[in-house]
Design a protein that fits this description.
The complex is a heterodimer of chains A (324) and B (104). Chain A starts with a helix and ends in a 10-residue tail after the last helix. In chain A, helix 6 crosses helix 7 and helix 7 packs across helix 8. Helix content of chain A is 72%, strand content 0%. Chain A is globular. With 324 residues, chain A is an all-alpha fold. By secondary structure, chain B is an all-alpha fold. Chain B has one domain. The chains are: A mainly alpha (324), B mainly alpha (104). At the A-B interface, helix 9 of A face helix 3 of B.
Amino acid sequence: MNNLIIVLLVFWIISSIWCVFAQKTYRVIIFFGVFSLLTAAIYLFLGAPDVAMAEAGISAFTTIFFIVCVEKYYSRGEGLKHEMATKTNKPRKITRYIFPFIFCVALLVLFLNFAPTGYVVTELRDQYLQMFMHDVGGLNAVTAIYLGYRVYDTLFEALLLVVAVVAVIHLSWYEKTAVSDGKHSEMERSRMAKFTMRIICPIILLFGTYLVLNGHISAGGGFLGGLAFASFIICRFLVLGIYDLPIEKAIRMEEIVFINIVILPILAIFTGIMYLAWDATEIFQNIYLIAMSGLIGMKVTLGFFVLFYRYIAIERLPEEGEGE
Amino acid sequence: MIYILSYIIIGLGILFMLFGVIGLFQRKRDFYYRILIACKVDTVGMITIGIGMALRHGISFFTGKIFLILLIIVVLNPFVAHIVTQAAYKSGFISVYKRKDGDA
């Protein structure tokens, strides 16, 4: 075990304890971001760059998302001022930190000294690592697992995002689906912001396309590419002030993409493209992998875009007199 | 020879970052000073370390990637600091020093 990982794990534990015992909401969000960042670093050093990139992207996304949501639900900035004004005069009891800290240190010691005794079954792992190029195709074992061996899990994960989007749409307060009251963002008027976005946006698009198309060869995949595309749309939305986005079409298209995500692996399994039923399957395997990456990328893009748009752009507290 | 030079440059970048971290804690806890220091230190240190890594690796595809990352950092890092500072200023955050002058 590398020494750096031990240091990271210690900070990981400390950040998680901070995150649980922080006294203000904003501190919790910031410590949660720190926790996610350390998690990403640990994934990276343990040899899983795909997962590390996904974790970093999601942590960056959720930090902004949580802060804006908390700000909105505290009625437009009053919450922040209130939290900054109130000083927590309670004496910090050290005793309540002691038990979780001891617990976590004990877990760390156990984890570092973990030596499996006896016979360990590595049959399935060896099977996956030796056969994935032959069975599913591509050069990336993670992609081979989540698009080949464990494709049903991926279907249910995609279903989870669909459920989240549907819940947000049906439970949010605001009924309209487009903003046309002339509200503009602060950044829209800044020339510097526009100039920077014109330089950065093509790079983000290129990077997202690279991640989607290259996911089966190196670290990347549909999920990360979708995050990149979603950040591109959100940058355009925030900085260039494009408010009239076709949100209805986005919701409809997300459902269609989800149906395609369900259909494509089933077709691939039953026609025998996967698992090498006939000879010249390599090109079909690559087509299948790239198509699935692209579909998942579209799914994640639309899902995050709809979530962001509903929560941050048009969701607001109902005015008095506007009625329920 | 070029290896030694690259190591010296990487060490210089780490030294810049160290000075910045010391500077963050030396000043009074004022938001505007600290964001200035953090942005400058990040940008300068990352540029220096990136150039050192490019020298260390020689001319290859990897060097191109490093220069792309440096380009993104040079464009984005001051922009982010600018936006955060602007948001703080517009939402009415007053510097510690200015607050004192107002009282006196």
